[in-house]
Amino acid sequence: MSKTITLAPVTRIEGHAKITIQLDDNNDVIDARFHVNEFRGFEKFTEGRLLWEMPGITSRICGICPASHLLTSAKAGDDILAVEIPETAEKLRRLLTLAQWLQSHALSFFHLSAPDFLLGFDSNPATRNVFGLIAADKEFTKRGIRLRKYGQEIIEILGGRRIHTPWTVPGGVREPLDPTKKDYMLGWIPEAKETVGLALDALKKIHKKYAKEIPEFGNFRSLLVGLVSKDGGLEYYDGLLRIKDGNGNTIADKLDPRKYFEYFGEAVEPWSYLKFPYYKPLDYPDGMYRVGPLARVNICDYIETPMAEAERKVFKALSGNVGVVNNSFYYHYARCIEMLFAVEKIEMLLKDPALLGTNIRAQASVNRPEGVGCTEAPRGVLFHHYKVNKDGVILKANLIIATAQNNIAMNRTVRQIAAHFIDGKKGKITEGILNRVEAGIRCYDPCLSCSTHALGQMPLHIELVSASGEVLDEVQR
Amino acid sequence: MAVITFIIDDEQYSAQEGVTILQVARDNKIHIPTLCYLDGLSTLGACRLCVVEIEGSPKLFPACTTKPTENMVVRTNTEKLKKYRRIIVELLASEGNHQCAVCVVNGHCQLQDLAYEVGLDHVRFPYLFPKKSLDATHKDFVMDRNRCVLCTRCVRVCHEVEGAHVWDISGRGIHCEIIADLNQPWGTSANCTSCGKCVSVCPTGALFEKGASVGEMQKEHDFIKFIVTARNKHEWVHIAPEDE
Description:
Strand order of the largest sheet of chain A: 3-2-1-15-16
Oligomer: heterodimer
CATH superfamily of the largest domain in chain A: Cytochrome-c3 Hydrogenase, chain B
CATH class of the largest domain in chain A: Mainly Alpha
CATH class of the largest domain in chain B: Alpha Beta
Number of strands of chain A: 16
Mean pLDDT of chain B: 94
Strand content of chain B: 15-25%
């Protein structure tokens, strides 16, 4: 008799989801699915609104990465206005992007995933959270929270508020940087570098501690997609798309992100509100690809800042004789490398006198009927595509979110972890197993409110269901 | 002109015959909330935010159009008035599509200020989510009917001050809408002088400058009084709102 195990809701992720695990008659895992049960409808209700309002509206998709939507939407607006934004505006936007990476990555690592690493996957779930972490290692946790605070403070200094600032607009940004705040931001750099160093140290210990388990945490070959700079460096704000396969071969390079729809399609499954983007030449589901830190650090040829570049080389060594690191657990490692890069690059930008310019906004009316914005959000490459009428009224909006692009891979990860850790014959799921399945999802730091442009909150629930629909076992948080 | 004496909120006031309760109240720093009223434009009494109680009558009277009489006893801030004013703002909120968080006048909106003033922490009436149109055909300005409260300040300022009479109201009741040139796209209006007075007097984000993003649109509501005073009296005196 086959059975289904359901985990709902999945905890310590950004959004609302459940996981089901299907067992066959022999109680072996035959399938596992990551269901996203949020629905929001931003693409529909923004129709009829004005282009200039879109950054403000779409940033409301998310409270963690509003800056990413803000930036990407503004870039789509730049494209429609057909303007090249002033140098200062671009550098300020770059600073915002890095601050966004830093705060979001710090949240993912310290607040959401570190409880598993430092307290253990099998530790008491009641304390396996950021509060338990504070109790266990107050200084480490405090440093992590302060690192996130640093990212948030930069966003606030630039945009006037930490969450949902409307500071980035089509044509540039709204306000120049207050020069009196520059030294304050620079003053954080030594502490921030040190904190990322602590995170990397902690993570490397985890790599040793869980050396046997890590190979089962979403270890498979897939395409890796992201932006790289014109000369192949790690990119976060602009650049061209590069696609590598799971063997490290570059199968596409220098693709114009404005033509994303030529390369990527979106499949739909009846059991999830989250779409399944795929690489068109390989079709669905073989066109599975991963985006985000793991993809970015894998596909780039170099990182322009020295400490992050040194760490990237260590990371690449993990790939052995395969050209890329395919294990999803190393998302965490790549995320820490990106935090290091963000801190170093923020320091570089803050020392650039062009950052203090006051020519920050290009004015133009609608010059193209459609435009695409593309940036690297913390979780991966993000596309906003708008079609407008001659007055700038949105006729159609399409948003392709990083988390959605990881959807096929997240499902694969859940399936792999479930197959490895769940013994259907016992008919009983331990809490630690449940947590490992969730931790597989957390590698991707999914943001479901973003990826469905959807609604919801998030607790966790697993069901073991027989083929006849009988609930054999259930775990609820 | 005769002087009359009457009571507002237990205090005795004297005023020239013919002025309104609202004018006397403002001259004496007594706050009465308003929405459709704007100094310099004709009064309409449409929004009913400025309603007051007058002793001896069970009805409520709009302070902007009601003239005091000798020994009249007026109350401006009773529990009954607070309740009615809150209901009015709730109805406005439920009738339109007011999304403050992403609105161009967020933080500078008179409807939002009123909502704070009347303590509008939630709306008890079902939202109607009406399908309203947005007219972005004008080269400089946008009319978003989703955010319109039908105060008709735009209609009056265009007719009375600019003299262009671009704006009118079409429809009836809840289906009323502000239209340009007898319902033509604003951008094709032969009458519009693009002076922007309608945009400046609009209390909400219904009229705004094209290109404005969230919270970026700030309006100068008080300059109409300056223009009208200058025109009628040949006195170019700017009266700051706080000195009124």
